[in-house]
Amino acid sequence: MTPAATARSSRDLPHPAREEIRLEGVLHALSDPVRLRIVRVLAADSDELFSCSYFDLPVTKSTTTHHFRVLRESGVIRQVYRGTAKMNGLRRDDLDALFPGLLDALLAAATRQAARPAND
Amino acid sequence: MTPAATARSSRDLPHPAREEIRLEGVLHALSDPVRLRIVRVLAADSDELFSCSYFDLPVTKSTTTHHFRVLRESGVIRQVYRGTAKMNGLRRDDLDALFPGLLDALLAAATRQAARPAND
DNA sequence: CGACTCGTACGATAGACATCGTAGTACGGC
DNA sequence: GCCGTACTACGATGTCTATCGTACGAGTCG
């Protein structure tokens, strides 16, 4: 037995299985500006993992934790502990399998809006 | 000449201008199952207008009014009075101009999810 | 006019949510 | 073993939201 397969630490984070991911949940998760921002950063380098503290967000740490949890529970991101840090990555494979083209369209839309004259 | 062309009711409904439509708002509007359902029906025939009562929704009339207002205020649908009825249509032109491909990706995702084994 | 239909407005309510601060837990290094 | 760093858990709070019921306004048709 590989220890990895059975080593269920208390620091194990619950993720929804691919089939449990709901479109409504994903949309709700991305309808918050802070979370949308997080996802855009993660998407910029999909193969990389980023710690929570990597992000420069306009909210406190408690709130940051909350947002990351919403993203994880809705199935948008994957979180893994690595030492004291919690690494975050986009679940692009799952999302693309479930909803082909959606993530790209969403990211393109976000980029487009960010490029609009009047705002962030 | 049909009077219909000029018969504008005094009741005017406020819609956001194209540039005022926010991605977050659109996503939030579509993150509710009832509203997503409405949009899917509207999208099935984009050139047609449907009255509110056309939809068979699992909520009361008051709630239905509420959902249609959320959709209108977020810029997803357009509403026009026609006699006692209020006709609803998707703002596909504006959404496609702002976020090319997004609406189609969202609708495809919704269809795909609806076709999934376990649910609506 | 009067009745009927369609949708609105208003008020109430229960639940969700974004936000914060403080106190605490897990891990890695000294 | 002890300290600092990274994140969490918990509790509080104000706001938003989905829902309802009832009462009303606007338009159509007899």
Automatic annotation (TrEMBL), chains A, B:
<keyword id="KW-0804">Transcription</keyword>
<keyword id="KW-0805">Transcription regulation</keyword>
<dbReference type="InterPro" id="IPR011991">
    <property type="entry name" value="ArsR-like_HTH"/>
</dbReference>
<dbReference type="InterPro" id="IPR051081">
    <property type="entry name" value="HTH_MetalResp_TranReg"/>
</dbReference>
<dbReference type="InterPro" id="IPR036390">
    <property type="entry name" value="WH_DNA-bd_sf"/>
</dbReference>
<protein>
    <submittedName>
        <fullName>Helix-turn-helix domain-containing protein</fullName>
    </submittedName>
</protein>
<dbReference type="InterPro" id="IPR036388">
    <property type="entry name" value="WH-like_DNA-bd_sf"/>
</dbReference>
<feature type="domain" description="HTH arsR-type">
    <location>
        <begin position="15"/>
        <end position="110"/>
    </location>
</feature>
<keyword id="KW-0238">DNA-binding</keyword>
<dbReference type="InterPro" id="IPR001845">
    <property type="entry name" value="HTH_ArsR_DNA-bd_dom"/>
</dbReference>
<dbReference type="Pfam" id="PF12840">
    <property type="entry name" value="HTH_20"/>
</dbReference>
